[in-house]
């Protein structure tokens, strides 16, 4: 069974951040407060997303006191917008090859239900992944620092014998699948643009068994170890 992370594994999470900033900018432009371009410029100049919302809300409040366009309003627009994001090169081809080989594909991701489901649909992943095999921490109540999401996949797929997990984050993606005997693969952050750095010091049990630069490379590992 081929199980994948979502953020910074199937698409670039920074693209989601920019997509959310544009959704906020569009709403502000429609309200006549400022252009989308100006809003996105202010948001992208900040170092963190929270800092970006505070900075833009303060700017709006200076011009228009008591405005309803607060930082909290921006958080809501960001979390519930329909994202413009796309799969990394090679992902769709890899999933097609796995599906044609009769392999089952699943996703384990940490985040809010509505946000992660919107990404799942925007990326067209419903073509490849059954909804019972989309595991979101906001729905199960346990993130990948716990074995629960991995145990759910095993219990929902009793016919499966071998499991693989591909992710990007050594802080939490590989510890539990390693201890459960899964094959673990880290997708290297080639461009250095991931939200969570891979340059962190972790114990051996947190490291993936293999590191790849692309999904087709992961497919080759799957053929070598899982068939
Ligand atoms: Mg990730």
List key phrases describing it.
elongated, Rossmann fold, six-stranded parallel β-sheet, alpha/beta, 2 domains, 227 residues, 10 helices, single chain, binds magnesium ion
Query: What ligand species are in this complex?
Result: magnesium ion
Element-level helix/strand string: EHHHHHEHEHHEHEEH
Number of separate helices: 10
Q: Name the average pLDDT.
A: 96
- CATH homologous superfamily classification of the largest domain: HAD superfamily/HAD-like
Q: What is the level-2 CATH architecture name of the largest domain?
A: 3-Layer(aba) Sandwich
Structural class: alpha/beta
Question: Quick summary of this structure?
Answer:
The protein has helices at residues 13-30, 36-45, 49-63, 71-80, 91-100, 113-122, 137-140, 148-156, 175-179, 215-226, and strands at 2-4, 105-109, 129-136, 164-167, 183-187, 210-212.
Walk me through the structure.
The protein is of the alpha/beta class. It folds into two domains: 2-12 and 85-226, Rossmann fold (3-Layer(aba) Sandwich); 14-80. Helix content is 45%, strand content 12%. It has a six-stranded parallel β-sheet with strand order 3-2-1-4-5-6, sandwiched between helices. Helix 6 links the parallel strand 2 (105-109) and strand 3. Helix 3 (49-63) crosses helix 4 (71-80). The mean pLDDT is 96. The structure holds magnesium ion.
Topology at a glance:
Blueprint: E1 2-4, H1 13-30, H2 36-45, H3 49-63, H4 71-80, H5 91-100, E2 105-109, H6 113-122, E3 129-136, H7 137-140, H8 148-156, E4 164-167, H9 175-179, E5 183-187, E6 210-212, H10 215-226
Parallel strand pairs: 1-2, 1-4, 2-3, 4-5, 5-6
Helix pairs in contact: 1-2, 1-4, 2-3, 3-4, 5-10
Bound molecules: magnesium ion (MG).
Magnesium ion binds next to loops.
């Amino acid at each position: 069974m081929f199980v994948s992370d979502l953020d910074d594994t199937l698409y670039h999470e920074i693209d989601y951040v920019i997509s959310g900033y544009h959704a906020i900018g569009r709403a502000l432009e429609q309200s006549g407060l400022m252009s989308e371009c100006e809003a996105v410029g202010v948001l992208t100049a900040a170092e963190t997303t929270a800092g970006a919302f505070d900075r833009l809300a303060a700017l709006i409040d200076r011009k228009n006191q008591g405005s309803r366009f607060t930082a909290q309003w921006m958080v809501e627009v960001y979390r519930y917008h329909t994202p413009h994001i796309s799969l990394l090169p090679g992902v769709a081809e890899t999933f097609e090859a796995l599906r044609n080989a009769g392999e089952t594909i699943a996703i384990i991701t940490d985040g809010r239900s509505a946000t992660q489901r919107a990404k799942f649909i925007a990326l067209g992943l419903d073509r490849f992944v059954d909804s019972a095999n989309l595991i979101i921490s906001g729905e199960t109540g346990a993130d990948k620092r716990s074995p629960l999401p991995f145990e759910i996949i095993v219990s929902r797929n009793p016919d499966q014998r071998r499991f693989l997990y591909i992710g990007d984050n050594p802080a939490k993606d590989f510890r539990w699948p390693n201890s459960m005997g899964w094959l673990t693969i880290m997708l290297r952050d080639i461009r250095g643009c991931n939200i969570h750095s891979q340059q962190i010091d972790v114990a051996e049990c947190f490291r993936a068994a293999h590191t790849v630069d692309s999904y087709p490379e992961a497919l080759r590992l799957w053929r070598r170890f899982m068939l």
